[in-house]
Structure of Translation factor GUF1 homolog, mitochondrial:
Amino acid sequence: MLICKLISRRPKATRIAFNNLPLYVSLFQRKFCKKSDDVEGLENIPVERIRNFSIIAHVDHGKSTLADRLLEHTGAIKAGRDKSNQQVLDKLQVERERGITVKAQTASLLYTYNGETYLLNLIDTPGHVDFSNEVSRSLSACQGVILLVDANDGVQAQTVANFYLAFGNDLVIIPVLNKIDLKNADPERVCKQLHTLFDIEPNTVLKISAKKGIGIDEVLQAVVERLPFPSVDRNAKFRALLFDSSYDKYRGALSLIFVKDGSISVGDNICSVSNKKEYEVRTLAMLRPDEVPVKKLIAGQIGLLGCNMRSSKEALIGDTIHHVDEQVEILPGFQPLRPMVFAGIYPMDQSQHVNLRSAIEKLTLNDSAVTVDVDTSPALGHGWRLGFLGLLHMEVFSQRLQQEHGADAIMTAPSVTYKIKLKPTKQIMKDGSDIIYVNNPAHWPDHVKIEETFEPMVKATLITPDEYLGSIISLCMERRGVQTNATNIDNNRVMLQYDLPLCEIVVDFHDTLKTLSSGYASFDYEDNGYQSSSLVKLQILLNGTPVDELSNIVHITKSQTVGKQMVHRLKDIIPRQMVHIAVQAAIGGKVLARENIKAFRKDVTAKLYGGDVTRRMKLLAQQAAGKKKMRMVANISLPRETFIDVLKK
């Protein structure tokens, strides 16, 4: 409407010149978009005065609070302690509700040091293990990191994982202790932990309080002094790494890029290495943290690129962008993480299928770690099989679908991907191998065709106070874990490493761990390949008929326990009908557990008011014969809500 009013006020000859939407948008941006004088002339800042860095830490160690103070200290936002200045970079509703960072966010800061202006590109990353993909993507555009550790809680499991992730990428690490103002803070103890685990010298550790703003200037000085400037060439051909993307309903896919070589300007024609499709650069912006339009981005800078990408498949994370008709070497990207948890997602009603598909496509553009495959269920209809990095990742994705896109969906219980080696047959698989991968119990082959089964394993790291050590070891043994290492961090805390089956930890392991340790233990895991295991398909039979939607893949040692739990729950969920229903859990032809759902009974003798007893017996015999016949030919009708109640648990 604002664009239309602007054009309508101009003379007719001028209105005729505005025949395409991009010019309207350009006029709108000049009139209404936020401008900032402090970004003028950024192309004149030498590479030696540019620093690209991330903040990495365990959950709730103060990453977002430190990012807020850095924004305030450099003048990107006004100083204050109101709600508008809290979690500035956490823009998603789910982030503010849960108090966690889900999506890595970028902000360009201008900092004056020794009379010279430095451009500091900050990336605030998530801390939970399920969003480690965001961390690895962010580190691909950085030359250093701030390793933030709580001075009260000390080193946690995700601290260890993030350190080795940065160390493996040859990044410079600045250790920082946060929350030194707390009553129970013990900086000396935490410094010893850092020295024991990572060989970090205590005199290199900065001590700050992000909440009160203590030591923030020392952090900025350390970023300038310790971190190297990006190794780029401004005179070479343009190359940029696309390391993140988001979706805007008016501008399409927006790409966050790190300019490695050369420069890019509005109006340039570019293409990506992956799809070779050409685009015209419509908008360029720097995030401070709001978008500030610029005309040019040069090597060493991080910025937002808009070029009318309309499909989620076009913005490929890790892709190299270059000018049209120029041959460039592909930039080394990052290793994308493999999804570890799978769940089915179906619309509440099949009439909502198109809307849900559109919402999933837009959200997967914003979260490239999610994999999508089409799936069909006889009970729930057409849907998708989505792959996630963990259980929290799945919960957040489902919540964002509803909050950001208004899509109500049914999410089934999580499962993992199993590897199956089939017995040799005359029929050969399409790829010539006898190995298949299954993440849906309905696709599990018949046991007579299986030669060997494998389940995914993880290398788990647990850090706990020693008073909870016995309970945690018992928990890991119950979940079929094998201990590989144990290290004393200090006099009070122990770091344990276990090989655990992934299927044993995806549902309730984290919650049980927190309960046993009163919330003090921390947990992190990474993929550790496949291991041979005795896996079976636990089938649910209703009156002898198997129902694939209710089947499950379990270890043979837990099959009877899981079978009893399933049939007991189904007895309470399945509504009574006119026929008797036998609910059974079976493996192959062996029944492990059974429950009976009694049929409704009609009182056929209610009309009798006297007479011989043989009349009563005759009516009851006719009713019994009719029910027996009905049971032989009847197909049990289960409402859709029954499958939803079972599959969601």
